[in-house]
Amino acid sequence: MRQPAHCDACRRPLSPGDQIPIVAWLRLDGKARCCGARLRLRLLAVEVLGFALGATGMLGLLLLI
Ligand SMILES: [Zn+2]
């Protein structure tokens, strides 16, 4: 499903700490650590959406138990 995480600009694989785009984005002010390219906001939005869906799913599970 998910592609291995890599930089869109230079195609280098991301380090484990940078696998979560929103974390890297917040920490590095929207720039990739490897090459300084601006991270795409579209990817960030996808990540945020996935996180929100995951959190909602977890909450739903907790409520079911
Ligand atoms: Zn890069």
How would you characterize the overall build of this protein?
By secondary structure, the protein is mainly α. It has one domain (16-64). It has two helices and no strands. It is elongated. The N and C termini lie far apart (28 Å). The structure holds zinc ion (ZN). The site of zinc ion has 8 residues, from loops.
How is the secondary structure organized here?
Layout (H helix, E strand, L loop, with lengths): L20 H7 L13 H24 L1
The structure holds zinc ion.
Radius of gyration: 14 Å
Bound molecules: zinc ion
Query: SSE order, as H and E?
Result: HH
* Distance between the first and last residues' Cα: 28 Å
Q: How many beta strands in the DSSP annotation?
A: 0
